[in-house]
Amino acid sequence: MSSGTQGSPTPGRISDPVAFIKAETQVKPVAHAEEIRLHQADEAMVLWQKTEDELGALGLPPPFWAFAWAGGQALARYVLDTPELVRGKRILDFASGSGLVGIACMKSRATACLCVDIDPFAKCAGELNADLNSVSLTYLCEDMLDAPVPDVDVLFCGDVFYDKPMADKVLAFLDKALASGLEVYVGDPGRSYLPKDRLTRLAHFTVPVIGALEDADVKNTAVFQLNSKG
How many CB atoms lie within 10 A of CB 148? Predict the structure, then answer.
C-alpha cells in the first residue's frame, strides 16, 4: 500500500536505509499469512516520527512498507490458498508496500513478480523481505499511473481506494490493465472509494491490523476481481 500521489522519502538521505529498516522493525510472521515473514514495526506513530526526524522532513506519508495492511493480508492469504491463480504467470504487485503480495505469488510458483511503489523505502524493505522468504522480486520505484501497463498476466493491488483522487487515478490505470487483457484482483476492507459496482467478491477474511493506523484491531476484508466497465 502506498499513496502513489504524494512525495516520498529518499533513503539516500539516511546513510544506511537497510540498517534503519532492520533497527526499527522486527521479523515476524504475517498475522493472516503465517507462511510469510516480514520486517514489521510494532509502533506505527513512533516509526513515522523517526522517519521524519531522520530525513528532516515533515508531512511524510505513513511508512506503508513497515506494516501488513488488511487488503494485502487478504490477497496474500487468497493467493497462498489458491496457487493456481498465479502459477506460471507474470505478476504485477501494484503499490506493493512491504512486498507481501508479491512474496505470496512467488511462493505459489508465479514465474516472476514486478513490485511497483513510489516509496524508495518500500524497495529496500521489499528486497529484505524477499530474502527472508527465499524468493526473488523485481522492483520499480516510480508512479506508473500514467505509464503503459507492464507486460504481465495478473495485477494485484491492496488498500488503494482510501482517497478519492488516488482512487480515481488507480481505477483508470486498472481499466487500462483490463483492456490489455490482465486479470485484476483487489484486496480491500471496505475503504471509502472502493468501486463496489465493478467488483466480484471471491473471498472474505477477518484480518488483524495495527489499531493505530486503522479504526479497529481487526478488519473484515475481502478479495475481489475487478470487472470491465459496462
Answer: 8
What does the alpha-carbon distance between residue 33 and residue 74 come to, in Å, rounded to a whole number? 8
Distance between CA 70 and CA 18 in Å, rounded? 25
0.90 surpassed by pTM: no
Enumerate the β-bridge partners of residue 201.
224
CB 139 within 8 A of CB 127: yes
Pairing of strands 138-140, 112-116: parallel
165-177 tens-digit pLDDT: 999 999 999 999 9
Q: What is the pLDDT of residues 82-139, one digit of tens each?
A: 999 999 999 999 999 999 999 999 999 999 999 999 988 899 999 999 999 999 999 9
- CATH number for the region 11-226 comes to 3.40.50.150
First to last CA, the chain: 28
Q: In what order do the strands lie in the sheet with 90-94?
A: 138-140, 112-116, 90-94, 154-158, 183-188, 218-226, 199-208
What are the phi and psi torsion angles at 23 (to 5°)?
A: -70, -30
Q: Are 29 and 195 in contact (CB under 8 A)?
A: no
